[in-house]
Amino acid sequence: MIRIYTSYVPILFSLRFITIISHLVLLIILLLDRNPNTNKFIENSSGLYNSSDLTQFDTEYIVWLSVSLGILVIELTSFLFTVSSLVIYQSLISILTHSIGVFVIFGFYTDAWIFSDIRWVFGFCTAIPFLTEILAYVEIFIRKKTYF
């Protein structure tokens, strides 16, 4: 059993690293290129929003992206210091949610989506891995569970 588990660790380690980095890069691109995205969203909404709604939308957009970036940087730091890199359920959940996040954010970047849907995507793709990261910390540091 241990031999099978240890043979998958390098694969999970590299997959998790690639998905976290690609999610981070796309979030940074969205943050730096936010004006065309907000304008594209306003144009596609066919005049339903005025200038005060635009400033509110832009502020919410910056806040959601900044919170997502902050959570992702915390998770990446924890991963790089190998605190939770050997926790199998954390690796699988992180790979799954960050992969979904990369595809959905890329779709958001190429097409303008409704912003209320993007809030759910950012919450799902950053909050769930972060919560499981905290759970892994609790298991490792408080319950003293070892994974190696």
From TrEMBL:
It is found in: Membrane. InterPro entries: TMEM107. The keyword Lipid metabolism does not apply. It comes from the Eukaryota. The chain crosses the membrane at residues 12-32, 61-83, 95-115, 121-142. Its main location: membrane. The keyword Transmembrane applies. It is a multi-pass membrane protein. Keywords: Cilium biogenesis/degradation, Membrane, Transmembrane, Transmembrane helix. GO terms for cellular component: membrane; MKS complex. One of its GO terms (biological process) is non-motile cilium assembly. PANTHER family: TRANSMEMBRANE PROTEIN 107. This is Transmembrane protein 107. It comes from Brachionus calyciflorus. The lineage of its organism: Eukaryota, Metazoa, Spiralia, Gnathifera, Rotifera.
